[in-house]
Design a protein that fits this description.
Elements lengths: L7 E4 L2 H8 L11 E5 L4 E6 H10 L5 E4 L5 H15 L6 E4 L6 H10 L4 E4 L1 H9 L3 H24 L6 H14 L4 E9 L20 E10 L2 E2 L2 E7 L4 H20 L6 H14 L8 E5 L9 E3 L11 E4 L2 E4 L3 E4 L2 E5 L4 E3 L10 E3 L1
Helix pairs in contact: 3-4, 6-7, 8-9
């Protein structure tokens, strides 16, 4: 807030309401606000139903509910005005998430609070969330391992002849049993179907010799996980084993390159010669991303990204290669940037060879 010249920020998106309220609301309704000022004072304006939960678990004591009904929007804005008046900020320079709120809500705020100097506060939230607190890091260590264990257990639980949908369901059931509060994405595809990126899983048997691609994540207390692994039904062909081995080598180089002081673009650009030397092609202009409450949070490890890696950031590193007529090869790990390098959080199992499903 200080660097942006703001007297206060107001969270309104699900992620930032969670971040500043200290409690995860899976779906905050429109006109849910958390005010944080430069003195550290906070107050929540929220609908009457969510008030019960926030009073029970939020780190904020000042919670002001409004009733459901046709006047909910104007009632919420009236409560927000009361908060800003109590904080002495009715003429303050206030940052709010203009890239989240619909135009009608922005208009209502400007008309309801005409003396406030409204600014876009999204960047302040984005910057604050990039470097994780000790509690967030502790949480990520646990939930990334739970997600990886669910993937590995899913591979181990199915046999040749299982469908993509059955494998995806097995992993989803496992991750919920390991503490996930809700599911995010379960891209589970086999063989040529895996080259269709972000397709739905099919209810068709996975055939012997097919490489399986998994891109999988879940939500734990509002925080998102995102990991990718490959397996094969039976034994891989010589070429499949070779491709995977080459990608694994690139992945190790990628993990070693992620450290404080390097730009996100430099990570991407440094890996392109490694792909070329091995005859592989990474198909996109990004090779990873920072993560947190949102799966893609803050920046991409991409061409032109000048984001500087700092200790406490958590990034996803995910080199990929699509072999036409065969499969998508893809490794994705969660990495914590440390003072002198990085710590791989997804370290439940070895990824040096394809997991074999018998």
């Amino acid at each position: 807030m200080e660097s942006a010249g703001l007297d206060a920020v107001i969270a309104s998106s699900p992620a930032n309401v969670t971040y500043t309220a200290g409690a995860w609301l899976s779906l905050p309704l429109l006109y849910s606000f958390v005010v944080t000022d430069g003195l550290g004072r906070r107050a929540i304006v929220i609908n009457e139903a969510d008030t019960y939960f926030l009073r029970d678990v939020s780190t904020v004591d000042d919670i002001r509910p409004f009733a459901f009904g046709p006047d909910a929007a104007q009632d919420a804005i009236a409560l927000l005005r009361d908060v800003l008046a109590d904080f002495g900020l009715l003429e303050g320079r206030i940052g709010i998430e203009l890239d989240y709120l619909p135009s009608a809500a922005c208009t209502a705020l400007r008309e309801g609070l005409p003396t406030v100097d409204w600014q876009d506060g999204s960047a302040a939230f984005d910057y604050a969330r990039l470097v994780k607190t000790d509690d967030e890091i502790e949480l990520f260590r646990a939930v990334v391992r739970a997600t990886e264990q669910a993937i590995e257990d899913g591979f181990a639980a199915v046999q040749a002849g299982a469908t993509e949908k059955e494998l995806a369901t097995e992993m989803q059931a496992r991750v919920l049993s390991y503490g996930a509060d809700s599911l995010l994405h379960a891209h589970v595809h086999a063989g040529v179907h895996s080259t269709v990126v972000h397709a739905l899983s099919l209810e068709e048997p996975i055939r012997p010799g097919e490489v399986i691609h998994v891109d999988f994540g879940a939500c734990f207390a509002g925080y998102s996980t995102d990991l990718s692994r490959n397996a094969v039904v039976g034994e891989p062909s010589r070429r499949q084993a070779e491709i995977y081995g080459l990608l694994w080598e690139i992945h190790q180089i990628a993990l070693a390159s992620v450290k404080p002081g390097i730009t996100a673009a430099a990570v991407f650009e440094g890996l392109q010669p490694e792909f070329a030397a091995r005859g592989l092609v990474h198909p996109w202009g990004t090779i990873g991303h920072s993560t947190g409450l949102d799966v893609h949070e803050g920046f991409e490890l991409a061409v032109g990204s000048d984001a500087l890696l700092e200790p406490g950031m958590i990034v996803q590193v995910e080199p990929s290669h699509i072999e036409a007529g065969d499969a998508r090869y893809h490794l994705e790990d969660s990495v914590l940037i440390t003072e002198d390098g990085c710590e791989i959080l997804s370290n439940v199992s070895t990824t040096e060879q394809l997991f074999e499903i018998r």
